[in-house]
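note to self: the first set is below, dont mix up w the second
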Amino acid sequence: MNSIPDWDQPISQEELKEIEAAFETALSSIKRRKHYKDDGDNDNNNAVRSKTIGRRLPNWGIRQCSAVSSDNVRRIGVSNCEFDVDRSIWRSNTFSRSYPRNQVKQKLRYPALKFEGRIVYSRTVAEVEKATTELLEFTRADKKNMDRYILGFDIEWKPTFKRGETSRKAAVMQICGNTGHCYVMHIIHSGIPPILQSLLENPAYVKVGVCIANDAVKVMKDYGVCVKPLEDLSGLANQNLPGTPKKWSLASLTEALTCKELEKPNKIRLGNWEASELSREKLKYAATDAFASWHLYMVLKSFQDPSNKENVQQVTDLQSK
């Protein structure tokens, strides 16, 4: 039989007293380190000062934290998460004790999602017809090995701010089918020419977006054109991502899948989309929305590949943080 180790033996009264004495000695030593007298200045009334005891990471620990390789996180179509944090409250490796504790909370911001391709803007009937023809040529070249072609789709209209006021007509239609081109059509001025209507109703071109059925209903109501077929990104996300189904917005889904922020400044979003000509900022906003819809569809479809199960789990872990 194995002998019982020392730590399992009963403690005698003498040993217990020795432990208590050692504890009192250690406690007194700590108190002496926290408070000490300044004998160098006899005229100083504040002879007893409290010494601040703080903790800081060693330099090797900080370097190790900042040197995490991006190879540790790999996802198809999903970027590594990076945050823009206001670092003005940090002092070297230590935290400033003078900074109020209730202001420590930081709002971590993702880098903005940007469309880096060419924006084709059209506002007259002739320009919209030309843009649609160009779009069809691009898609036909890419569509050779596909049964269906995916188009990110979105619309914009001038908001109303009075109760009971009739909703304005759809003013802008944006369509994106790749990373290189996005078509922004100012349909409040041009209407929807037959060639564009043919594209919108063509079953070989799937229009994707968040709550895209609402956009299709509005186009039908405003212009009498049936946009089909449709695929909603929120439903597609709930089919492909584990966890409780949720009602995704385009912005929240962009953050979850790409670690990018889809910027929605009210000055642009609630601006006058019926203006005679769209500003550069409005064009970028409209193009980015359509591009985001197309890009997120491609990311979600990549998760359906059995080899990408790990990627789905990594996105799920990101959502829970």
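second set (the one i keep forgetting abt)
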Amino acid sequence: MADEYFFALTLKGKSSEVWDPEAKGAEDYQGGHKLIIKQALLGPEATEGEVNVVQVEAMTWKDSVKIPVATLKAGGPNNQVLLDLSFPDPPVTFSLVQGNGPVHIIGHHLIGSPMEEFDEMDELEEEMIDDEEGEEGAEEEEEEDEPKTKKLKQQIAPRAKLRSKTTPRPKSKR
């Protein structure tokens, strides 16, 4: 199961911040790391009327892309923005390409389970598969018994008809 942690960073001036937990020696987790960004907002000390643009550089399935993800303006309704950005592969670079900030970026850092936990899960899955195969085998045996029962009924039914024609029924006493 993945562990979830609060993530936050602050951009000021022309600064950049890189999210790369694997560079810090945290690569021994199956399922890796995932970053989910939920909000960007200006700090109260941001210059009124100044436009601040946050840019992200991240990997797509084939190459790197740089794109603005938030445009914020102090002193108005655009001083914060709700986001739903998911970055499954580090590294991710956040940059303030316009304005002086500060811009606070908030989200979640998801970490996959340690390798040992995945080994235990593999063993449990194998046991569950073995149990399911045992149950399926019992169901198949029941299905195999069904045609035998039908054959027996088909064989018995004509004999019962034959007996009823050849053997007289005893008369009931009333």
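remember for set 2: Strands lie at 3-11, 16-19, 33-42, 51-59, 64-73, 80-87, 92-98, 103-111.
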